Amino acid sequence: MESRKANLEHITKLDKRSVYPPSVDTYLLADSIVNDIQFIRSLNPAIILEVGVGCGAVLASVGINLGEAYYLGVDINPKSAELAKTTLEINNVQISEFIAIDIFKGMNLSNKVDVIVCNPPYVATSAEEYQECQARMDISSSFSGGVDGREFIDKLLELASDYLSEKGVMYMICEIHNGYIDGTKVSEERKGCEGVMVLKRTKFSEIRRIN
């Protein structure tokens, strides 16, 4: 079955100033997951969570190609949660919820999530810049990843090991400067995304940092 593309025509220039817009890595993540959709379908997933939902492009792409599930989008940026809600409504993904929250401050999702999706802030910056950007709760929180681009990622790996169900999987973007992260590469090489890849991980993947 031919994959379907999400309708993103409603996203304006003004939106792109306050919410991480559809970018090359966005499409790399979305396409990599859709290419693996038969595997995801075999899991019969009930809950699909996107951490850092942005404009909702990835979650909408999953929804229109997978079908019925509960789609949960979380973002520290309130404008992202609002725009992502509109994106899924326009794409007729019916069962969804969007929450503006710091995912690391706790949600009751232990062992409940079948698919986690994340394009984390992976750009290497100082630890101070990472903390400042997260505190702003705006578009800057989408970029700064702290030392080696790993500060958000390392917390995400811990989170996934808790939230994923026994059969669950996570698809996440990372880049070569983040160092080794346990997982299976499921993305293709793509112009404009040199050094960037999509990793597929399970609940039982290694979470210890390996340099």
TrEMBL record:
Transmembrane regions listed in the UniProt entry: none
Example GO biological process: methylation
Gene3D superfamilies reported for this sequence: Vaccinia Virus protein VP39
One of the record's GO molecular function terms: protein methyltransferase activity
Alphabetically ordered keywords of this record: Methyltransferase, S-adenosyl-L-methionine, Transferase
Short name of one Pfam family: MTS
Domain Methyltransferase small: 48-131
GO cellular component: a single term: eRF1 methyltransferase complex
Keyword Transferase: yes
UniProt superkingdom: Eukaryota
Family: Belongs to the eukaryotic/archaeal PrmC-related family.
Name by which UniProt lists this protein: Methyltransferase small domain-containing protein
Record organism: Blepharisma stoltei
